[in-house]
Amino acid sequence: LALWGRASQPSRERRKSIDISPQRIIVEDTSTSQPDVGPVPSHAQENGDNESTQTIPKVNATDDGADDVPIIHLNNDEEGSRLADMPPPNGFIQKSISPMLASSAGSIFPPTSSPTSLTNTSGSSLMPPPPRPRASPPQFPSESKAQPSLVQHLAPPRLKSNNQLRPPPSAASTLRVPSAPRPSNSTLAPTAVGGKPRNSSRQVTLEPGHSPLDWAMLTSNLNSKLRGAHLPPELITVTPSMLKAHNGRKGRDAWTSYQGKVYNISPYLPFHPGGKGELLRGAGKDSGKLFMEVHPWVNWDGMLGECLVGILVSENDKTNTRSNDLDAMD
Ligand code: HEM
User: Fold this and answer.
1) Domains of the chain (ranges plus CATH)?
2) pTM value?
3) Is the CB of 281 inside a 6 Å radius of any atom of ligand 1?
4) What's the 177 CA to ligand 1 centre distance in angstroms?
5) Per DSSP, which regions of the chain are E strands?
6) Could you read off the pLDDT tens digit of each residue along the chain, which spans 330 residues?
7) Could you tell me the distance, in angstroms and rounded to a whole number, from the CA of residue 40 to the centre of ligand 1?
8) CB of 4 closer than 6 A to ligand 1?
9) Cα(172) to centroid of ligand 1, in Å?
């Protein structure tokens, strides 16, 4: 490879030709008077050998500048090939050409140019070749063993148990029919069987015709009279003592209060997925806390709207307020 450039020294004697084999650089003083710097073949003829040379881009030289141009040749003779197998001394080429590069061709070689970069004989560029593309695609960072912490950050969180993956309840859940019968609905308190906790679901097997869908059909019928047989069509006021008296025993309906409103839950008892016993825990008193502890997602008003008896009032409130007045209070 022969390279031309404009040297900084004006003298013709400083025109140099530099032979570069992969492992050596020979600096020779041609002291030629030719103003134009020819391509490499001219240099090969001057030396009288038949070594192969590279074609290089030609520089349009002028009389006032071409004389100062150094020439760098790449020598590929046998010796060079033999020496190519041997590692060059560390920094050999850079040390050898540094005096010339500093004054002339230094600008075309980056300071960090390595010997291998000088052997690039593309001829079309004086810069070192770009880095070779990798044979394999770059590894994803998570595959790198050098960054275990990064792997942990990128890895999806590990879930401990399928129980935590239970989807949030939806309206459709109220229509779900239990898939497996329960051994008993006398008590739904969790018990340990064989040392293992019982299934978290405490739903019971509903009697035929008492599915959530059946309840929905029943509430849509305006003639169902789900509030109670002996109640006026209007909402009534209910005192705590009245509520307590309707506990579902002795043939009485079971009332319960929720958010200041009193409902007759007796018609819903055989439809309750959690069982009659669970629902009756709120009979004769407020069930808001119990209800919210078990299934806050259940739409109470949507399911028991037709069972609304009246409004819970204080014991001293003797006024038998009718529904219109209660609506105004709401
Ligand atoms: C004293 C009040 C109540 C108690 C103690 C109670 C208790 C229960 C229990 C233990 C379950 C079974 C939960 C499970 O599957 O693990 C359940 C389910 C259910 N209860 Fe209640 N309940 C009460 C009131 C009500 C009321 C007033 C309604 C209707 C407005 C109702 C509607 C339902 C529904 C729809 C389910 C099925 C929930 C589901 O499958 O996600 N419950 N209840």
Assistant:
1) 12-118 (no CATH), 212-329 (3.10.120.10)
2) 0.47
3) yes
4) 13
5) 16-21, 24-29, 71-74, 192-193, 196-197, 236-238, 255-258, 261-264, 285-286, 308-312
6) 444 444 444 444 444 455 554 454 445 454 444 444 444 444 444 444 444 445 455 555 444 544 555 555 555 555 444 444 555 444 434 444 444 444 444 444 444 444 444 444 444 445 666 666 555 544 444 444 444 444 444 445 554 445 556 555 555 555 453 444 444 444 444 444 444 444 568 889 999 999 999 999 999 998 889 999 889 999 999 999 999 999 999 999 999 999 999 999 999 999 999 999 999 999 999 999 999 999 999 999 999 999 999 999 999 886 655 544 555 444
7) 96
8) no
9) 14
